[in-house]
Amino acid sequence: MPYPFLHGLNPEQRAAVTLPHESALILAGAGSGKTRVLTTRIAYLIQSGQATPHGVLAVTFTNKAAKEMIARLSAMLPINTRGMWIGTFHGLCNRLLRTHHREAGLPALFQILDSSDQLSAIKRLLKSLNVDEEKYPPKQVQHFINSSKDEGLRAEAVEAYDPFTRQMQEVFAEYDKQCQREGVVDFAELLLRSYELLSRDSALREHYQNRFRHILVDEFQDTNRLQYRWLKLLAGPGSAMFAVGDDDQSIYAFRGAHVGNMREFERDFAVKQVIKLEQNYRSHGNILDAANALIHHNSGRLGKNLWTSEGSGEPIRLFEATTDQEEAAFIVDETRSLQREGIAFTDIAILYRSNAQSRVLEHALFSAGLPYRVYGGLRFFERQEIKHALAYLRLIASSEDDGALLRVINFPARGIGARSLEQLQDAARQRGVSLYEAACMKLLGGKGGTAIGNFAVMLEAMRETCHGLPLPEQIEHVIEASGLAQHYRGEKEGAERLENLNELVNAAAGFVAENEEDHSLAAFLTHAALESGERQAEAGVAAVQLMTVHAAKGLEFHAVFLTGLEEGLFPHENAAKRSFSEDLSAQQVSRNYNSRNESDGLEEERRLMYVAITRARRRLYISYAQSRMLHGQFRYGLVSRFLDEIPAQLLKAVNTRRAYTEAQSAWTSLSAPAAVRRSSAAPDSPWHFGQNVSHPKFGAGVIINCEGSGADARVEVKFRNAGTKWLALEYAKLTAM
DNA sequence: ACTACGAGACTTTTT
DNA sequence: GTCTCGTAGT
Question: Is the CB of A632 within 7 Å of strand C?
Answer without folding.
Answer: yes
